[in-house]
Write a structure and sequence with these properties.
This protein is an alpha/beta fold. It has two domains: about 5-70 and about 320-425, Alpha-Beta Complex (Aspartate Aminotransferase, domain 1), CATH 3.90.1150; about 70-315, Aspartate Aminotransferase, domain 2, CATH 3.40.640.10. About 35% of the residues lie in helices and about 15% in strands. The strands form four sheets. The chain has a seven-stranded mixed sheet with strand order 4-12-11-10-9-5-8, with helices on both faces. Strands 1-2-3-15 form a four-stranded mixed sheet. Strand 9 (about 200-205), helix 7 (about 220-230) and strand 10 form a beta-alpha-beta unit. The longest helix has 17 residues, at about 320-340.
Length: about 425
């Protein structure tokens, strides 16, 4: 694989950006080597600056559920941009996208658009605190909720802990308002509520944790979470920035048929453009300014370009059989990869999301169960796949995504590339 142009661009980028990138995982630190500079994408394929072509299973970390440069999305965006790209004022398109979402999602009654998943979660946390009058939040080790200060906290050594900051620049005072426990532990949840009774504003969880492997939780555990939050007058917040509109139009809430109090969305809503959203009941959302006293604002919130892209993309997602076909193709890929029995690995999946882990475990439900040493195998696998035209997120902790644009020919080529890559191990 040629990479001279990407290498030159990366060297130049180092003089402009910290580590040569504008988001850390892009630097290829987990897998080594030179990051690829992408020139273009169409459908299920991308091309880098050296002209190498890849079948893409990263999909810009999930939102490109229709594939790259989808014609319906591009046509909608082109039409919108010719009338202006940003006004900082209401537009008809905000109404249209909100109606499309709310009329097909019984789990929320009102919505507020923002510009990223991080912003959506940050705003939802503030809403939970403002609505309940409480200050503490509870999160789980292994779930990622963006880079806002109160959520960059990792677990300490105890069953229930305030934990430690996972980034410099986060004050200790923020850490002391965030309780961190392990996933899949009813005991830890019960202890946390006993220890901090009437102090916890919300429990935030990725109902389908997909930022640190694919740590699938049982419906029983998520239902227990719903019940213990209700019993303690604590809001349950589902972070569906990845799972929303990906495992189904109603996301994990619909998949498990569990109604949280607040849901955050992102990625897919924008059809490739920056966007996020949070939603809840009319009562809870009435706390948001200008109706209530919880402040949140943004010039680019609900900008017309992202709204038109979202309308085009989500309209396609509502086509009969859309999600069933995505899952069928995902299972076809997994079946082909699973035929290789010479290596100890498992592929965990839900809908059109999958994760390959070098393990003999039948299930991995918490971050502590991931064998960090196994990532050396992924590093070898990753570069062999690149050499054979397969692109995915450059970390063994990242998941893969199927899109509507992936063909059965793509899938068979991917299976063949994996067979070569497994030999490299």
């Amino acid at each position: 694989m040629k990479n001279q142009v990407s290498a030159q661009l990366f060297e130049k980028a180092k003089s402009y950006f910290p580590g040569g990138v504008n988001s850390p995982v892009r630097a290829f630190r987990s897998v080594g080597g030179t990051p690829l500079f992408i020139e273009k994408g169409k459908g299920s394929h991308i091309w880098d600056a050296d002209g190498n072509e890849y079948i893409d299973y990263c999909a810009s970390w999930g939102p490109l559920i229709l594939g790259h440069a989808n014609d319906k999305v591009l046509n909608a965006v082109d039409k919108t941009m010719r009338n202006g790209t940003s006004f900082g004022a209401p537009t008809r398109l905000e109404n249209e996208l909100a109606e499309l979402i709310l009329s097909n999602n019984p789990y929320i009654e009102k919505i507020r658009f923002v510009s990223s998943g991080t912003e959506a979660v940050m705003s939802a946390i503030r809403l939970a605190r403002g609505y309940t009058g409480r200050t503490k939040i509870l999160k789980f080790e292994g779930c990622y909720h963006g880079h806002s200060d109160s959520l960059l906290v990792k677990a300490g050594s105890g069953l229930v802990t305030f934990g430690n900051t996972s980034s410099a620049g986060v004050p200790e005072s923020f850490v002391n308002e965030t309780i961190v426990i392990s996933l899949n532990s009813k005991e830890a949840l019960e202890k946390a509520f006993a220890q901090f009774k009437d102090e916890i504003a919300c429990v935030i969880i990725e109902p389908i944790p997909a930022n640190n492997g694919l740590l699938l939780q049982t419906r029983e555990y998520l239902q227990f979470l719903r019940e213990i939050c209700t019993a303690n007058n604590t809001l349950l917040l589902f972070d569906e920035v990845i799972s929303g509109f990906r495992v189904g139009f109603t996301g994990a809430a619909g998949y498990y048929n569990i109604k949280p109090d607040i849901i955050t969305y992102g990625k897919i809503i924008g059809g490739g453009f920056p966007v996020g959203a949070y939603g809840a009941s009319k009562e809870i959302m009435s706390s948001i300014s200008p109706e209530g006293n919880v402040y949140q604002a943004g010039t680019l919130s609900g900008n017309p370009v992202a709204m038109s892209a979202g309308i085009a993309q989500l309209t396609e997602c509502l086509k009969p059989g859309f999600y069933e076909e995505l899952e069928r193709k995902t299972k076809l890929l997994i079946a082909g990869l699973s035929k290789n029995t010479k290596h100890h690995f498992k592929i965990f999946s839900i809908g059109s999301i999958y994760w390959l882990a070098f393990t003999e475990k039948e299930a991995i439900r918490s971050a502590e169960e991931i064998d960090a040493d196994s990532m050396k195998h992924f590093k070898t696998l990753y570069h062999s796949l690149l050499d054979n035209g397969i692109y995915s997120g450059p970390s063994g902790y990242e998941v893969g995504f199927m899109s509507e644009s992936h063909t059965e020919e793509d899938i068979q080529k991917t299976i063949s590339a994996f067979e070569v890559a497994f030999q490299a191990l």
